[in-house]
Each structure stands twice: as structure tokens, then as C-alpha cells.
Amino acid sequence: MSAEHAFHPPVVTTPDGRPLDVIEMRGLTVDCIVGIFNRERLAAQPLRLDVALFLDTRAAAVGGRLAHTVNYGRLAGELRFLLEACRFELLESAVETVCRYVLAPPTDDVPRAQVHAATVRVTKPLALGGLAVPSLQIHRTAAEMVYGREEKGFGRVDIIHEGAGYGVYRLRVKPGGCIPTHVHQQMEESELVLGSGLLLQFKPVVRGMAFNWPRGFLHRYDNPSSTEQTVLCVDRPGFIPSDEVETEPPPEGLLPITGHSYYPLDEPAAPGSPAERQP
Question: Which of 11, 139, 149, 248 is deepest in the core (most CB within 10 A)?
Fold first, then answer.
């Protein structure tokens, strides 16, 4: 990596002075809508993302399980989804959202190590036409994060971040629960399925699949599993309660919709290996 693009996260220590381990993901490039000018709201441009996650990986080293560390393959897909779906106006919004997402506590259906701090840099390489390369780098800790929470009939919602023109939420569907058939007329909605036990439109859906719901499109989720299941949701603008209009499924059934996978296609070399098992 050239000196121009060097990424220098700080050293972060535990209360007793031991340096935390660092997982870095550098150079994730995503073509997305970002910026405040008319031309930027119409055409995608590249953003380059660098992330450093501070955590304790010793349990993963001993037990050999991904649930005790961070699956950076899946995380890359989740961050790419956020950058594409949110359509940020400012770099400040993009880096803050990424930080808040990676520092959020893990859920039962997607076990991983808790990240204690994160350094995030977003670079906008084409913004100034080659005259200079603007970027923004921030550092945040899990201890300073406060997440809103709303109880729902289907389970609960974690409010990850809300900003100008967007809202990012984790929809946590309890065992046996469902997000009833509903429709939006004002919000545009994009969702990434994080858990592996959900039904979408009454049919099984694979984790890592993302869906963009047009206005007026009926959709629902059901959780027939014994574990809470999670969906990462982006609303544009942020969630409008009156625009969550529940309705009965039509007699002919719910229409299918084509999704897009954000997770790596690689399968473990040895299916059922300890690395893939739950803690």
C-alpha cells in the first residue's frame, strides 16, 4: 500500500494495558450513490473502505470457531450492502454508520466476538477529479455507543443509526414470530437476511440474500426456528411508522422477488468442521 493510502489505526489496550488484537480489512471498494451534488445523486461512484476491528481473538485461536472471532468475508458483504443501500450524502454519515454497525452487540443467530473498538476510513477517490483524494477516518468504542430499541409484536428492532434520508435497523424476529404481510407507499426499503432460519414470502431464504422492495410490494418474514433470526434493514427515508401498512396476504399468494447474495460463495473445506459450529 502506497504512503498516500496508508492506513494507521491506533493501538487500543484493555483496562489492564494489554493491546487488543486487530482484524483489518483494507481497500474494500464499492460503487454507490454518495454525495450532495446532483450528478452524485444520479450516478454511482467508487468509495474505498478501510476498517480495523479491535477485539480478543484468543478463544478463536484455541477453539477454532468463527463464532469466537469475526467472519470478515460476511462482514465485507454486510458493509457493501450498507454503502449501496443507504445512499449517503456525506462521508461523515457513511463512516459513522459503519462504526455503529460493527460495534453493535452480536445476536444469537449470527454469533461472533464482541468488537470493542473500530477505526473506519472512507475515501472518495474520484470526487475532485484527480486534484486530491478526500477521505475521512474516525475511531469509536463500543462503550460509547447507545442503541435505541423498540419492542414489536414480532420481536424487537435495534436502531443502529438514523441520519439524513436513511435509517439502519436490525429486525430481530423471535422464535415462532413473523413480520406480518405489509406494504410501504413512501419509504424505499432494502433488506439483507443475516440469519439462516427465516422464511420470506413463506419460502426458505438463504442468509446473505438482499432484497430491494419497491413501493407497493407486499412482503413478510416468518421465523419457524427455535432461534431469534435477524434482518438488516435500510429505509429511505428513515422509518415512518404510518407507512408500515399491514394487510392480509392475497388469495393468489405473495409474489416472489429476485434477491442478490452479498456473502462469499465459498463453502468450508470440511462441512461441519469446528470452525462453522456454534459456541
Answer: 139
User: What digits encode the pLDDT tens for the residues 148-195?
Assistant: 999 999 999 999 999 999 999 999 999 999 999 999 999 999 999 999
Other C-beta atoms closer than 10 Å to the C-beta of 1 total: 9
Quote the number of domains for the chain: 2
The domain that contains 17 carries what CATH number?
A: 3.30.1130.10
Give me the helix-helix angle, 72-86 and 91-103, nearest 10°.
140
User: What sign has the CA pseudo-torsion 189, 193, 195, 199?
Assistant: positive
Classified as helix, coil or strand, 155 is strand
Range 217-239 average pLDDT: 97
C-alpha cell at 69: 472471532
Peptide bond preceding 237: is omega within 30 degrees of 0, i.e. cis?
A: yes
Residue 188 lies in a domain: yes
Tell me the β-bridge partners of 162: 167
Per-residue CA distances from 234 to 129, 161, 249 (Å): 30, 10, 23
What is the domain extent for residue 242? 148-257
- What letter represents residue 125's amino acid? P
Q: Are 129 and 182 part of one and the same domain?
A: no
